[in-house]
Structure formats: structure tokens, C-alpha cells
Amino acid sequence: MMRLGAQLFTLRDYTQTAQDLDRSLEQVARMGYQTVQVSAIGPIPARQVREICDKHGLQVVLTHWNPDRILNDTEAVIKEHEILGCDYIGLGMMPKKYCTPEWLSHFAEDFKEPAKKIAAAGKLLMYHNHNIEFQRFHGKLVMDTLLESFSPEELGFTLDTYWVQMGGADVCDWIEKLADRIPCVHLKDMAVKGWEPIMAPVGEGNLPWEKILATLEKCGKTQYLLVEQDVCQESPFVCLEKSYQYLNSLGYK
Q1: What's the angle, vertex CA 14, arms to CA 13 and CA 20, rounded to 5?
Q2: How far from chain centre, in Å, is Cα 216?
Q3: What are the Cα distances from residue 142, in Å, to 146, 222, 253?
Q4: Which of 37, 60, 182, 193 could connect to 7 by a Cys-Cys bridge, CB 3.0–4.6 Å?
């Protein structure tokens, strides 16, 4: 059964100190979440983050970590994730220089060695997409280049539903394409305000959630459904809770 989690990037303004992280996670646990993704929190030592999560009965299942440290301080990053009890080490996005026709090939060249070290430690480097990965360089999607450049043991994908849609692609098609490489998925809805797409709590926008969740269930490899909302039209705590309630009504927890 896929488990629900809260992507703490949603609450980044409320997680910059240990005290605020503690307060925020108390509310996250009260909503019903049992897992979290650690992302964009303040400079809090991994041991203290683990203690706060344990206090509230929350398991860290994924992170977004500093790309420079993944690249240049890989062993320390692995140790920090061992302390967190977390097997999935995430890249929120590739550093900007790589997402160009001239430099894309260098992403695999640079991150292959850290990916192999992470795999040897029994963990997995995870890549989170935005819409930029649905650009075509030399006639090929950036996402396809990434897929071909790393083995499934070296690189997993945190598929983000909103950004796939923003990239003009079909969410369910990409779930099927990445079926054995998406242990974690970001759930984020897309609504419309005037002429502009906006992020919305899951169930309040236009993405076909029952179809998306059925496709994930059919593929059977995803472990964690992580709710994220980068931009909220109301309190991010309210948005996280609305998403949880909707997904819980469909049988997830």
C-alpha cells in the first residue's frame, strides 16, 4: 500500500529553526501524515532532525539535499541519511548549467560516481522533475536523456504530477514509462485562475486523480505519495491538510 507523506518544502517558511521544525511537524502529524520528505529546512543537524521526527512519529523517506554536497561530499551525505533513516537521497533539480544543450551530457558524467557510491551504500539517488525536463535538446526530451544515462540502480525519479502536466506531457503515460523507477511521487494539483495555471491542494484542481492513483497501483512500484505545494493560495498548513483529507477519502494514509 502506498503511504502518504508531506513534502516539507511546502512549509519551508516554518522550518528554518529546530523549534519551528518541531512546531510544524507537530501539526503535520496531527493532520494524519506518517512520513515526510525533508527539503529546504534550516541548517539543523541530521541527528536533531531525526529526533524531532521521531518525537512526532514521522518517518523521513526522501530528501532534497544540496547538489554540491551530493557531488563533492558524498560519503558525508550518505552518513547523514543513515542518521535520518532515509534510503532516498534527492536532487530537487539539476543545477541550471546542466539543463542546456551544451552541458546536459555532463550531468551524467559528473553525478555518475556519486550515484554509484550511494547505490553501494544501499540507497538511491532520486531526481525530481520540473517542466524543463520536457524540453527537447537535439530532438530528444531531457527526461529521456536522463533515463538513458543512468541505470535504474543508479538513479530513481520523483515524478511530480504538476510539472509533468506543465511540461505538456501525460502524467499516466509517464507513470507507466517510469514504472520501476518511481518509488516516490509528488502529488500536486493544477487549477486555473484567469489565464494562468496555479498549484492547488490535491483534489481541488483538474488532474485526474483517480486515474493517476489507479495507474500507480497497477504499476505497483511506488511506495510513497508525497504531497507538495510550492505556492499556496492560503495557509500551506491548510493546503497540506486538504490534500491529506482528499487522499484519505480515497483510502490512502
Answers
A1: 145
A2: 15
A3: 6, 22, 33
A4: 37
Model pLDDT, residue 91: 98
Phi/psi at 182 (5° precision): -125, 70
Regions of the chain short of the pLDDT cut 50: none
Q: What is the pLDDT of residue 110?
A: 98
For 194, counting Cβ atoms within 10 Å of its Cβ (0-12 exposed, 13-18 middle, 19+ buried), the class is exposed
> Nine-digit cell at 140?
530528444
The total number of structural domains in the chain stands at: 1
The three grid cell numbers given for residue 118, joined into one nine-digit string: 550511494
Q: Give 30-78 pLDDT, tens digit per residue.
A: 999 999 999 999 999 999 999 999 999 999 999 999 999 999 999 999 9
What is the domain-level CATH number for residue 139?
A: 3.20.20.150
Indicate whether this model's pTM tops 0.90.
yes
All three cell numbers of 63: 530528501
The per-residue b/e assignment along 51-70, b for 16 or more CB within 10 angstroms, e otherwise, is ebbeebebbbbbbbbebeeb
- C-alpha 161/C-alpha 158 separation (Å) is 10
Pick from 98, 126, 92: nearest CA to 110: 98
Domain that holds residue 227: 3-249
Place of cell 552541458: 103
Q: For residue 180, what are the CA distances in angstroms to 128, 152, 164, 251?
A: 15, 8, 18, 23
